[in-house]
User: What shape does this take?
Amino acid sequence: MKLWDKDGKMPAEVEAFLSGEDAFLDQKLVPFDCKASIAHAHMLKKIGVLSEKEGAQLVEGLQEIIKLHTEGKFHVKQADEDCHTAIEAYLIQKYGETGKKIHTARSRNDQVLTALRLYEKDAIHQVQALILTLKDCLLQLSKTYGYIEIPGYTHMQKAMPTIVKVWLGSFVSSFEDTLKVFHLADELVDQSPLGTGAGFGIPVFDIDREMTAKAMGFSSVLENPLYAQMSRGKIEATLMHALTQILFDLNKLSTDLLLFSMAEFGYVLLPSEFCTGSSIMPQKKNPDVLELVRASYHVVLGEEMKIKGIISNLMSGYNRDLQLTKGPMMQAIEITLGCLKSLCLLLPKITINEGTCKKAMSGELYATEEAYELVKKYPPIAFVLKPIHELPAAFLRDLAVNHDEELVRLDVL
Assistant: This one.
């Protein structure tokens, strides 16, 4: 049974096309859909749609599904199409007609939106926590090795001297700005769409949206019901931008670590347990983790562009195109979490080779410093507005003598 079943048997090939990846992707949404349904059941009981017994049964059944999901025993099958149908089918099988009542005053449109927003809120908080952990890793490295001098680079050439603390600190500062982007994404996601129905509200029933929002942990309700549908993809695009921002930081950090760990540089020593070997070259120690982190920025950037492309040129309200934003968003979140977790494990185990860094501090790095020392010793004469041939000869002689400079032959002298 589908929540949208109509008369007539749909061809299996078309049904599979319509469901797409949802059966696989929605496995991640099961606990979030159950959380939303529990809040909805309590609200339905409050407004008299469910009796005390019915409400208790549905909440108990939903909690059972969460437990089964945690144990890996609740599966969304292709025949279910999505987790919403699978969950309701479980409740109907267990409680009969009572199980059907969970869908009262709710559309699959606001149901999927709510589950997605809960999933996104959870993902944002995980990412934020990992960024803070990674920031602490860099600060600890800076505390241990921050005093070591290393070359600073512009145009991939040695430029001026710096220290490890400045190098690593640049990423700490970047993380702090990136966290501000995540704060904005969290603020947008943190609005409950439950109760907006298919985009035009819920008629007849006097539902309590504030109650369900609070029960689910949302800060507010998304007021305009039509915008709730229009926000799908738009808010995800903001979240995707936040994900690409942190992956941009990790891309640059990985690039630096890859370069500085090369034998030609030797500033950084990578832990062997985070490197792989070669099937043909026994001497190789390949930094695959950093290479995959570096590449992941481009993958997630591509997923961001997918979502922004899908949501454009659509009429206001729900369009089935929006179903295709779920996969890119989930893929981007999983990739980002994987990159952050891997670097949180790798960074504490890298070593800065002080000896190699010291050897790299060659003389040309100090050219700017030496030039400024000369400027301090021999300050510029002065800037004048008049052409030099209009200045008095005595004035020019005094300048030359007072500044101990070689007298350049001038016709005026």
About this structure: The longest strand covers residues 157-163. The CA atoms of residues 150 and 359 lie 9 Å apart. Residues 12-103 form a domain with the Fumarase C; Chain B, domain 1 fold (CATH 1.10.275.10). Residues 403-413 have pLDDT under 50 and may be disordered.
